[in-house]
């Protein structure tokens, strides 16, 4: 039987297609923004850091309020706030004003997360991993599409701001479409429902312990984000300076990265549906990322950079964060908005702390940035192992 929330889910996924563009739109338009804002690339980078700060400010509380007031209001808040960001950047006369609007983009992201992730889990209670990781597919699709849009504008000598207006138009149309869409009742899962939302309480040896697997999954929210963020920001520069790639070739590494991410979503969505539990991927994928990072560090060639970009896109950016959240919701099913806020707060901390840390490291060596990323990823693997051990203890053997 067809799921009555399918059209609702489609509308939510479209929002993340636009979010994928919004996440990179400042960096993609850096040249034009330096002119408009009378600043340099460092100034635009400073503005970009505001996205992580804005996201952190309201994410936890918005998750808690989402549990109380429902998902739809927060999705609309996210869409409206994002529209203000896109329009505000185009009207900003200087770095200070643009920074404020960039903060709003982070706030908008938090609102969308707090409403969308719990809503999707409630729309598809028996496929929370697949529903969550599909968000990453739409984010990646947006990040793949925006450079094409900007390339079209540049090649035709058109106003760079049309890329921002393009995002606004999609949000407006999707907002109209969303008006009559129905949502499931928030937190319909009862406290007696357990891991994977299909096991009964008497099938569990022990109840989940928030201070062990809960905290571990929250920290994985940080390590998973850090792993792909370092590559997203620094791999083109690493390819150019360390691997000896030319400018155009090094910039294309992000295209390989996006393709890897999209591929992972397709593969993972199939695997988590019937074959492998989401919790297993919080070890498997970071392990692939760690091996890839070490190969990149030891053998910095154009070929390894291209393969590495795809591999990191697949294993780190392809949904580890979403799968960690799905595992968290399986273990603690009664407060999905709250746990979304917790996991994504850790992710937000990574989104502004990691660029600052790696910026300092870059003054020593680009290779040291890759080593730093490997260290963070290794921490994520250890935490993932802890979570899986606890998961196995909680569930009886077949």
Automatic annotation (TrEMBL):
It comes from the Bacteria. CDD domains: MFS_YdiM_like. It is a multi-pass membrane protein. Its main location: membrane. The chain crosses the membrane at residues 12-31, 43-62, 74-91, 97-121, 133-153, 159-179, 210-234, 254-272, 279-300, 306-327, 339-362, 368-389. Residues 8-392 form the Major facilitator superfamily (MFS) profile domain. It is found in: Cell membrane. The keyword Cytoplasm does not apply. Keywords: Membrane, Transmembrane, Transmembrane helix, Transport. InterPro entries: MFS (IPR011701), MFS_dom (IPR020846), MFS_trans_sf (IPR036259), MFS_Transporter (IPR051788), Sugar_transporter_CS (IPR005829). Belongs to the major facilitator superfamily. This is MFS transporter. It comes from Clostridium cibarium.
């Amino acid at each position: 039987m067809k799921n009555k929330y399918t059209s609702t889910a489609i509308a939510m996924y479209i929002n993340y297609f636009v979010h994928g563009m919004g996440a990179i739109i400042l960096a993609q338009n850096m040249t034009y923004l330096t002119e408009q804002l009378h600043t340099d690339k460092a100034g635009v980078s400073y503005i970009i850091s505001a996205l992580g700060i804005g996201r952190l400010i309201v994410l936890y509380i918005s998750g808690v309020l989402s549990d109380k007031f429902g998902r739809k209001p927060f999705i609309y808040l996210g869409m409206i706030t994002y529209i203000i960001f896109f329009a505000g950047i185009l009207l900003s006369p200087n770095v200070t004003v643009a920074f404020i609007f960039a903060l709003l983009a982070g706030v908008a992201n938090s609102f969308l997360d707090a409403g969308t992730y719990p809503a999707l889990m409630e729309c598809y209670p028996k496929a929370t991993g697949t529903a969550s990781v599909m968000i990453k597919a739409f984010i990646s699709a947006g990040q793949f599409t925006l450079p094409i849009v900007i390339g079209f504008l540049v090649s035709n000598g058109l106003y760079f701001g049309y890329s921002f207006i393009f995002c606004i138009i999609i949000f407006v149309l999707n907002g109209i479409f969303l008006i009559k869409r129905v949502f499931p009742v928030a937190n319909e899962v009862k406290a007696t429902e357990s891991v994977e939302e299909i096991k009964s309480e008497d099938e569990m040896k022990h109840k989940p312990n928030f201070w062990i697997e809960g905290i571990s999954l929250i920290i994985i929210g940080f390590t998973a984000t850090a792993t792909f963020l370092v590559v997203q920001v620094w791999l083109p520069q690493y390819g150019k300076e360390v691997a000896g790639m030319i400018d155009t070739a090094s910039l294309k590494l992000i295209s390989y990265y996006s393709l890897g991410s999209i591929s992972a979503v397709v593969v993972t969505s199939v695997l988590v549906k019937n074959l492998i539990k989401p919790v297993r991927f919080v070890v498997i994928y970071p392990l692939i990322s760690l091996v890839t990072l070490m190969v990149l560090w030891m053998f910095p060639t154009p070929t390894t950079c291209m393969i590495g970009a795809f591999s990191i896109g697949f294993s780190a950016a392809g949904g580890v964060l979403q799968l960690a959240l799905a595992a968290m919701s399986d273990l603690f099913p009664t407060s999905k908005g709250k746990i979304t806020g917790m996991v994504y707060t850790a992710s937000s901390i990574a989104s502004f702390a990691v660029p600052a840390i790696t910026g300092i490291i870059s003054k020593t060596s680009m290779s040291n940035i890759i080593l730093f990323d490997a260290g963070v990823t290794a921490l994520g693997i250890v935490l993932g192992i802890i979570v899986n051990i606890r998961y196995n203890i909680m569930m009886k053997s077949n």
